[in-house]
Specification:
This protein has about 250 residues and is an alpha/beta fold. It has a single domain, classed as P-loop containing nucleotide triphosphate hydrolases (Rossmann fold, 3-Layer(aba) Sandwich), CATH 3.40.50.300. It contains nine helices and ten strands. The strands form two sheets. A six-stranded mixed sheet has the order 6-7-8-3-9-10, sandwiched between helices. The protein has a four-stranded antiparallel sheet with strand order 2-1-4-5, with helices on one face. Helix 5 runs parallel beside helix 6. The longest helix is centred in the last third of the chain and has 16 residues. The chain is globular, with a radius of gyration of 19 Å. The chain starts with a strand and ends in a 7-residue tail after the last helix. About 30% of the residues are buried. The mean pLDDT is about 95. Bound molecules: adenosine-5'-diphosphate and magnesium ion. The site of magnesium ion has 3 residues, from helix 1.
Length: about 250
């Protein structure tokens, strides 16, 4: 199948003073995929995302987003991407509906707040304030705010960190829904089970360099073919299976 490239990064370098945080990385993201950026803390994932999001200056390299050059068309790029805003921007006195109206105003977009809250299963919380939400609800709301300008691409930086197993699975479903509506998703995560389930392809970054890039399946097959073996799992389930079996799949936050 011929894949259309929606983001192309070539030779991206980012220095913070003397420190070389991103060391000339190149990769492409295809339209309609969920692309994962994986790597240890400090690898350069957030730096890379924020540069593509036009929120951080690069040192050198070329970035093209949906045919637009980051150097010459940052404002056009901003219009077609959805970025999770810092939660500190969520004015404490406003409820979710009011926050969506506020953000829509910033984007100069007309939105139906209830439809957007429905999309992330937060209709019941329309009148709640952000700080009154559970961890999973906060993440869902934050993802809703990325959708306000009907973007072609959304960026999610560790959206499931700190969530309980049910909330994490609930977010996977939401992210898959967003992809099935045609939106390209770039996500970072430290959970490899999550990356395996969600991502069409992943890039593994270590110390500012991409050391692998392929589908999770392909990377696993390559490792196995190289002769890698691990002790056979003797049990048919793990502790997470026990947890989900005992506590159920439904969310508990409401
Ligand atoms: P990741 O998201 O993969 O954990 P980051 O992109 O946040 O990594 O950081 C990559 C490296 O750059 C880290 O060593 C981090 O300490 C450094 N770094 C990030 N932001 C800054 C900054 N504003 N000034 C100086 N160094 C930074
Ligand atoms: Mg980060």
């Amino acid at each position: 199948m011929q894949q259309k490239t929606i983001i192309s990064v070539s030779g991206l370098v980012k220095n913070y003073g003397e420190f070389n945080a991103v060391k000339g990385i190149s990769f492409e993201v295809y339209e309609g995929e969920i692309f994962g950026l994986l790597g240890p803390n400090g690898a350069g994932k957030s730096t890379t995302l924020e540069i593509i999001e036009t929120l951080r200056e690069k040192t050198s390299g070329e970035i093209i987003v949906d045919g637009l050059d980051l150097d010459t068309s940052p404002n056009e790029i901003k219009k077609i991407i959805g970025v999770q805003l810092q939660t500190s921007g969520y004015y404490p006195g406003l409820n979710l509906t009011e926050l969506i109206r506020l953000f829509a105003g910033l984007y100069n977009e007309k939105v139906n707040p209830m439809a957007l809250l429905d999309a992330v299963n937060l209709r019941d919380k329309a009148r709640a304030k952000f700080k009154e939400l559970s961890g999973g609800q906060k993440q869902r709301f934050s993802i809703a705010t990325t959708l306000i300008n009907k973007p072609k691409i959304i960026f999610l930086d560790e959206p499931t960190t700190g969530l309980d197993p049910q909330a994490r699975r609930n977010l996977w479903d939401l992210i898959k829904d967003i992809r099935s509506n045609g939106t390209t998703v770039i996500i970072t995560t430290h959970y490899m089970d999550e990356a395996e389930i969600l991502c069409d392809r992943v890039a593994i970054i270590d110390s500012g360099k991409i050391i692998a890039l392929a589908s999770p399946d392909k990377l696993i097959d390559e490792l196995v073919e190289s002769g890698f073996e691990k002790p056979k799992e003797v049990k048919q389930a793990n502790l997470e299976d026990v947890f989900i079996h005992l506590t159920g799949k439904q969310l508990r936050e409401e």
